[in-house]
Design goal:
With about 280 residues, the chain is an alpha+beta fold. The longest helix has 13 residues. Helices cover about 20% and strands about 35% of the residues. Strands 7-6-17-14-9-10 form a six-stranded antiparallel sheet, covered by helices on one side.
């Protein structure tokens, strides 16, 4: 069933995005769908502003996000507990989280207006610092890293209370299946299907070569203790502003209570996106 209300959010720095916003608002008008435009998006496109990301999400059934994967992560980070489905239109090349590109915006609006899209429920993670009220929600990953100092840090990991190992590395990534194609992949982690129901723990440039990625159930509670005595360690979720951790601090990562419904076009699958992004064309033999 098609939505009656749309929240429209764009990355203001993308070339041509102002014209794209105007065109999409016009196209949705053909379907009698009300469009609420985020403040910065409205400013660059000369549209009526309807509020912040959180404010337009509160009154929208679906959020249409124009930008790249980073724009979607930013939007998801502003939703708090008011999670709404997201439809991503990539301004540039096709991303892992977006399901259409800007050249095909008419087709995208047509699919939304005719109720032809489906949704992939994506696991969200929650990262908390023991003894603190701070809780961060992420779609991709929680990363503990050394920051600007070119030194290894020591991080002791436990899974469901059982010791895993102490990583002596540039940092440690805990990724959702969605985040397995992001930083974790660059650090040598595996690609995981979005419905796999797991977390991927991947060390960043480990000093011990036997330290490899490990896959654990999404129902696991992952505890990462900061044992580095001399240099600061930082926590960042989905690339957002880092939180400096004190020596002895423990970061607890677990599955969040809610999942994010991510829009999927009828003819686009996760594996087709992987083949395209990674240029997998099969053997020439």
């Amino acid at each position: 069933m098609p939505p009656k209300t749309i929240g429209l959010i764009a990355h203001p720095g993308k070339p041509g995005v102002a014209d794209l916003v105007k065109a999409i608002v016009h196209e949705f008008g053909r379907f009698s769908i009300s469009v609420f435009t985020e403040t910065q998006t409205a400013k660059i496109a000369g549209q009526q502003a309807d509020g912040t990301i959180a404010e337009i999400a509160a009154k929208s059934e679906l959020l249409v996000v124009l930008g790249g994967d980073g724009t979607i992560l930013n939007v998801a980070g502003h939703l708090g507990k008011n999670i709404k489905p997201i439809f991503g239109i990539n301004v540039g090349s096709l991303g892992f989280l977006t399901c259409s590109n800007s050249a095909a915006y008419r087709e995208a609006v047509e699919c939304i207006g005719n109720g032809q899209i489906s949704f992939s429920k994506r696991t969200l993670l929650e990262a908390a610092i023991a003894g603190s009220t701070l809780k961060l929600i992420g779609l991709n990953d929680a990363v503990l890293s050394r920051g600007k100092i070119s030194r290894l840090v020591r991080l002791r990991a436990r899974v469901n209370g059982e010791p895993l190992t102490e990583f002596n590395a540039d940092g440690l990534i805990v990724a959702t299946p969605t985040g397995s194609t992001a930083y974790s992949l660059s650090a040598g982690g595996p690609i995981v299907g979005p419905q796999a129901g797991v977390f991927v723990i991947t060390p960043i440039c480990p000093h011990v070569l036997t330290n490899r990625s490990i896959i654990v159930s999404e129902d696991s509670v992952i505890e990462i203790g900061v044992t580095e005595p001399d240099f600061p360690v930082y926590l960042s979720v989905d690339g957002r502003g880092p939180e400096q951790l004190e020596k002895g601090a423990t970061v607890i990562v677990r599955k969040a209570d809610q999942a994010l419904p991510l829009a999927v076009m009828p003819d686009l699958s996760f594996f087709s996106v992987v083949r395209q992004k990674l240029r997998w064309s099969g053997s020439n033999l």
